[in-house]
Amino acid sequence: MTAGWQQLGSISPVELQDTRLYLQYALQWVERAALCAAPESGENPDSPPNPNPLLTWQVAESGFFSHPFPDGKRVALILADGEASLSFTTDNGTQSSPPTFALNGHTDAEARLWVREQIEESAPDTTEYNDPSELPQHPLAEGARYKLSEHRENIGEIARWLSNAHLLLSKIKGEDERLCCSLEHFSIYLCQTRAGAKSSLDLGLSLGDLHYPQPYFYAKSNPPWQKEPSFNNELSTFHKRDFTGFVLLSEKIVHQQEQETASYEFLQEASKLSG
Fold first, then answer.
1. Which of 2, 115, 238, 275 is most exposed, with minimal Cβ within 10 Å?
2. In the beta sheet, which residues pair with residue 85?
3. Strands of the sheet with 187-193, listed across from one edge
4. Is residue 208 a contact partner of residue 186, using CB atoms and an 8 Å limit?
5. Could you tell me the end-to-end alpha-carbon distance of the chain, in angstroms, rounded to an integer?
6. SS3 for 75?
């Protein structure tokens, strides 16, 4: 096990679902801010084919960070010390005293307004911030308050899943590839484009969704595989509903003596699959 790996399983993976939804609602405002910060497509013809992602996970700060605004500032959702807070910072969190907004006890509308007020002077255009994202139903959407004081241990466990995934995917990614984060699937992933092929392979970790109410590693092709490829990994299963891909459920990982090895072997072997 490498020094960066954090042991998982202190919280049952299936018990993380409600916490994940709370955090997903908060993350939408980081993504909405990132949409205001990102340059328009084609703005820089010399930019690399894999542009900077809207959202990234920073291990040292234990948080999701938005694409930077022209002045270098970013919106972030920080998951540290069992607490969740929004932050408006620079240099990926190294600013000494950035403005912060602790989510516990506040409504989602208050969180949305706080981020909007922070980005007003930094965002060239806030039009993209106006519409909430489509997320699963949750009391937050009806005006309920964040009750995260009851979820401290779960928040810490979710942060460990994300940092572990970042550790493993960083070992696999190519020099010109970047790790991205997705709000829709609450995931961290790597998109690998096959040289000379019109296909790509996504490798990543989802914190859970409508398919699986627990974290899971996955590998899926774009365009989708028409039939199940040969893949030698006894812990994984082939998923066929709504998307086709191989998945490794967290409930299997936490029962392995070598959690890191089991997870890395899945991702490493999956990276060799053809799109």
1. 2
2. 78, 102
3. 179-182, 187-193, 200-206, 216-222, 245-249, 237-239
4. yes
5. 30
6. strand
Q: How do the domains of the chain map onto residue ranges?
A: 13-151, 176-270
> Which 3-state string (H, E, C) describes 6-65?
CCCCCCCHHHHHHHHHHHHHHHHHHHHHHHHHCCCCCCCCCCCCCCCCCEEEECCCCEEE
**How do residues 27-73 score in pLDDT, each as one tens digit?**
999 999 999 986 654 444 444 444 568 999 999 999 999 999 999 99
CB 166 within 8 A of CB 175: no
3-state SS, residue 114: helix
State the residue for tokens 């774009």.
222
User: Running DSSP on this structure, what letter comes out for residue 101?
Assistant: E
Give the separation between CA 130 and CA 143, rounded to whole angstroms.
18
Q: Rounded distance, CA 42 to CA 184, Å? A: 25
The CA distance from 67 to 30, in Å, is 9
